[in-house]
Design a protein that fits this description.
This protein has about 325 residues and is of the alpha/beta class. It contains 13 helices and 10 strands. The strands form 2 sheets. Strands 2-3-4-5-6-7 form a 6-stranded parallel beta sheet. The protein has a 4-stranded parallel beta sheet with strand order 8-9-1-10. Helix 1 crosses helix 8. Bound molecules: 5'-deoxyadenosine.
Length: about 325
Amino acid sequence: MHTIFRKEIIELLNGDAREIFKKADSVRKKFCGDKIYIRGIIEFSNHCCRSCLYCGLRRENKNILRYRMLPGQIITLANQIAQQGIKTVLLQSGDDFGYNRKALSNIIYKIKNANPEIAITLSLGERPFDDYKAFKDAGADRYLLRHEAANPKLYARLHPGNTLKRRIKILEYLKKLDYQVGAGNIVGLPGQTLGDLADDILLIKRLDADMAGIGPFIPQSETPLKNFPFGNLDLTLKILALTRIITENTHLPVTTALATLSPEDGLVMGLKAGANVIMPDFTPEGYRKQYQIYDGKVRINLKRTGDVILKAKRKISLEKGDSLKCKKPQKACACI
Ligand code: 5AD
């Protein structure tokens, strides 16, 4: 494939969606096959020390009940997910320093020790570098840290006190630690341009991310962005599709935000526009309701996951679903 330029991406974003979806679907088939990989999510804490303007977990939001699951509860739930044959457990929380390095390392170690066949994915936000190293040593395999917005000015506006530069530095460090790394962005953020979105795709490409989570902006009533419009469905699907076309074998999940924006068929449309992963939510009912990143967040459970895969005429995979990128040193690798 020739090097794609920002200008070309913008032109494609202005063009016909169907052609892009069709091309993305064929690229997905060629590089990822028909299998859909399953990741079981545990949203184990909604405490957060950040102030991201779009997110309902931001620390200024006094209108949610904050919770922290106990280590024992998290481990039991992870074991239950593994017993159902799901081979990736994703531990997600706000940026919560209520669990220190040692506590989290213990949780990771115990889950991995009881279920050596599974991958543990972390999505815990920004932490000191030594934490990432300790979590890897404890048995974590992957780390999801969306870059959120590739325009540094937009990033700074939306994330008071934080910079895109630091976010990228962390992603690069995680790669160095040999994590499989997930980046990704929100589509339809207030003030975002098509050029910014082209840069999102190019950043995912440049980082050579193993995964990328891409979903629409959904307003949250307790945030400063509560009155801004929802991200556009077609545009979100186009970004997903172009990310597939440009990055070829990156794992691309259909996101809960996509299902929330279009409850009827958002997920099926996503799978037909290049996605190859679904992440059903296993967070216990009482807690899940408090994990209101955005309003109306729907629940993707295992039943729905199966229905969606069937509807999209794809195959459910119970494999671990590691990165499809070649990890071997170039000389020893038969894939090039
Ligand atoms: N709309 C869409 N996505 C959001 N996220 C947080 N708040 C919102 C929102 N209002 C996304 C962020 C974060 C992920 C867990 O959820 O990209 O990384």
